[in-house]
Amino acid sequence: MSTPTFPPPKLADGPYIMGVLNLTPDSFSDGGEYQDAAPPRALAMIEAGADIIDVGGESTRPGADPVGVEEEIARVTPVIAALRTATDVPISIDTMKPKVAMAAMDAGARIWNDVAALQSPGALETAAALGRPVVLMHMQGEPRTMQHAPEYDDVVAEVIDFLVRRVAAVEARGLSAIWVDPGVGFGKTLEHNLALLRSIARIRDEVGKPVLIGASRKSFIAKIDAKALDPRTQRLGGSIAAALIAAQSGASVVRVHDVAETVQAIKIWRAVDAR
């Protein structure tokens, strides 16, 4: 499969499924469970229906400590290179660092997924030089502090305004292959997250770009269901519900940990919804 085209397929074809491959020992969702078996894990997600594999070497969970550039490169590039020889499914690199993005692209990645929306020094210039599709995400603050006390006057309007401005900055560098992510769980309270999930179609229409939603296993699920404390074992239902809401609302990509279950849920929804 080649790099996903822009714009992505119509909703009738279903959203792209982006499978999460964490290569960090401190991930909130799997605690480094797949560090030593990353390529087989990624290939299993592809077999289960993942259209894109999103590789990350630095945790962006609330309170996470930063990782050095060289360490992050050392974590991600061998896995990306191994996957590139085993599959043609597109690989995205989940990083805020331009040097990591460049190394990942050299190793075989095709998409830059940046939770900082290309605001790091040199990021816009690097993205322009690479000429690859990018994902621009909204985050209030930075990972270590973003959940301390997030505040907005109007979270949906403010996220849209931020994404519109970041899209304009990226387009000014000659790039048009852009997805946007409202950043569920990144500097948001439960009510902020719910407001964004209710407003996916509005975000898509007002920003004018395809929307990616990453709500899988996030802590807002436990704020709704107090029993869902363990991200790995107790948030599957909530994650699937969020993915279905995203798909029904017009999201073009859903970023998930549990690929097979999400794919099956979307197949059932599409079959029932077929007219």
Descriptive account of the structure:
Helix 4 links the parallel strand 4 and strand 5. This protein is α/β, with parallel strands linked by helices. 41% of the residues lie in helices and 12% in strands. The chain is globular. The longest helix is centred in the N-terminal third of the chain and has 18 residues, at 69-86. It has an 8-stranded parallel sheet. The protein has one domain (14-273): Alpha-Beta Barrel (TIM Barrel), CATH 3.20.20. The mean pLDDT is 91. Helix 1 (38-48) packs across helix 2 (69-86), helix 2 runs parallel beside helix 3 (98-107) and helix 3 runs parallel beside helix 4. The chain contains 10 helices and 8 strands. The protein has helices at residues 38-48, 69-86, 98-107, 123-130, 155-171, 190-198, 200-207, 220-224, 236-248, 259-273, and strands spanning 16-22, 52-56, 91-94, 111-114, 134-137, 178-181, 212-213, 253-256.
